[in-house]
Write a structure and sequence with these properties.
The complex is a heterodimer. Helices cover 0% and strands 48% of the residues of chain A. Chain A is globular, with a radius of gyration of 13 Å. Chain A has no helices and eleven strands. Chain B is mainly β. In chain B, strands 2, 4, 5, 9, 10 and 11 form a six-stranded mixed beta sheet that branches. A five-stranded antiparallel beta sheet of chain B has the order 1-3-8-7-6, with no helix packed on it. Chain B starts with a strand and ends with a strand. The chains are: A mainly beta, B mainly beta. At the A-B interface, strand 5, strand 6, strand 9 and strand 10 of A face strand 4, strand 5, strand 9 and strand 10 of B.
């Protein structure tokens, strides 16, 4: 297993366009998380899946954002009608049943989104 | 409202000496605290965690101390090595952290620079 994989690594898009990112977690991990990190800030929680069920969404996740995890495997994060304020690093993480507290999450390298 | 605060944006320490990174929090509902390390262009990597019912946890060169009455935790790295140069994030888990059951609230990070 090569860890958490995120694609693409970089995405440049024009304002108003839709973008979709993909995350492939560690295969035996049933929990998957999306975070957003802007310059000078720590990661901010967006949403969390346990298997295919989306159990929690942050108030940061406006109605332009949607995340899915069909069949409890990979996940996608879509942003519709992108705005310049959406420019950030989008991080995906996964963990096993024990959650993050003993062994932490395993983060991917992120997708850097630039909206021009 | 920053619930997890890292007030030092950067810290410079000589190789071989002790590095002490500090973190303050405001939410008494946090039940676990974690430290992550991040290199440029990579996702954060889990270092060490501590339960709110403990006051110390040690793993090799890394020790985390928790002072619940002061709502303060610190990460000690002894001895500091050049490879420790990175951004260190303090994070907390709690039901009301805004991160849901397993979401984490991160501080803004401290850039640790180990000087030869």
């Amino acid at each position: 297993d090569t860890g958490v994989s995120q694609n693409p690594r970089h995405k440049i898009t024009k304002r108003g366009q839709n973008v979709t990112f993909r995350c492939d977690p560690i295969s035996e991990h049933n929990r998957l998380y999306w975070y957003r990190q802007t310059l000078g800030q720590g990661p901010e929680f967006l949403t969390y899946f346990q298997n295919e069920a989306q159990l929690e969404k942050s108030r940061l996740l406006s109605d332009r954002f949607s995340a899915e995890r069909p069949k409890g495997s990979f996940s996608t994060l879509e942003i519709q009608r992108t705005e310049q304020g959406d420019s950030a690093m989008y991080l995906c993480a996964s963990s096993g049943r024990q959650g993050p507290v003993l062994y932490g999450y395993t983060f991917g390298s992120g997708t850097r989104l630039t909206v021009v | 409202d920053q619930q997890v605060k890292q007030n030092s944006p950067s810290l410079s320490v000589q190789e071989g000496r002790i590095s002490i990174l500090n973190c303050d929090y405001t939410n008494s509902m946090f039940d676990y605290f974690l430290w992550y390390k991040k290199y440029p262009a990579e996702g954060p990597t889990f270092l060490i965690s501590i339960s709110s019912i403990k006051d110390k946890n040690e793993d090799g060169r890394f020790t985390v101390f928790l002072n619940k009455s002061a709502k303060h935790l610190s990460l000690h790295i002894v001895p500091s090595q050049p490879g420790d140069s990175a951004v260190y994030f303090c994070a907390a888990r709690g039901t009301y952290s805004g991160g849901g059951a397993d979401g984490l609230t991160f501080g803004k990070g401290t850039h640790l620079i180990i000087q030869p």
